[in-house]
Amino acid sequence: MGHKFGYYTMSLPLNDVWNRTLAFWEDNGGKIKDQQFTGNEFFRTMEVQRGFSMTSNGETYQMNFGFNPKDSMTYVSIEVSLSFGYGVQWLKPQGMMKKWALEVGTPPMKLVRDVDKNFYEILTDIKNTSSQYQNNSAKKYCHSCGNENSGSDNFCKQCGTKLIT
User: Fold this and answer.
1) Which of 137, 144, 71, 143 is nearest to 152 (CA)?
2) CA-derived radius of gyration, the chain
3) pLDDT per residue over 79-121, tens digit each?
4) Helix then strand then coil, % of the chain, to nearest 5
5) Helix, strand or coil for residue 103?
6) Residue 13 in contact with residue 122, Cβ under 8 Å?
7) Angstrom distance (rounded) from CA 135 to CA 110
8) Helices (DSSP H) in the chain: which residue ranges?
9) Which residue has the higher pLDDT, 160 or 21?
10) How do residues 125-153 score in pLDDT, each as one tens digit?
11) Nearest to 75 by CA among 124, 23, 128, 136
């Protein structure tokens, strides 16, 4: 089984990237096999299966989404797995990732063979510390739009989303 990776950083709220991704897979024949949300609402994962046939499990897209309130950026890592094959078989997933990137509003990139450990460290920090960051600061950051609010606010001044306490 072959694996390739993609790493994206965008100045969009997590909910925008997530919703555009859900719509993309719905429109492009992806079946969402699993979705997970962390308690801090700044980190989500999605597993998508695409291209099933009688002889192949097709492609699997493991996607991690993290919103960092410190820089108001959404980080997305994607691990693409093929059930078999190398070479020309990667044209389809590469094309899908290009199409996805354009759909969510970020520049496309070529899938790579190497794991970016620094990128995964950023995602791990988001997953493990963002709720602590939010609760211990004098300011609250909206998990939906990234807007900075005062620590006493219960709802985002920008979009009206209930802030996590």
Assistant:
1) 137
2) 17
3) 999 876 667 888 989 999 999 999 999 999 999 999 999 999 9
4) 30, 35, 35
5) helix
6) no
7) 38
8) 14-27, 91-104, 117-136
9) 21
10) 998 864 545 444 567 778 788 888 887 78
11) 124
- Which residues are registered as beta bridge partners of 10? 74
- Give 57-70 pLDDT, tens digit per residue: 689 999 999 999 88
pLDDT at 85: 62
Structure tokens at 34: 């699993």
The whole model's pTM is what?
0.78
List residues bridging with 45 in a β-sheet.
Answer: 36, 64
Asked if residues 158 and 148 have their Cβ atoms less than 8 Å apart, the reply is no
CA–CA separation, 21 and 103 (whole Å)? 8
Bridge partners, 162 (sequence order)? 155
pLDDT of residue 129: 61
Residue 149, H or E segment:
strand 148-150
Query: Residue for token digits 């309130």?
Result: 69
Q: For residue 13, what are the CA distances in angstroms to 64, 76, 89, 139?
A: 14, 12, 33, 17
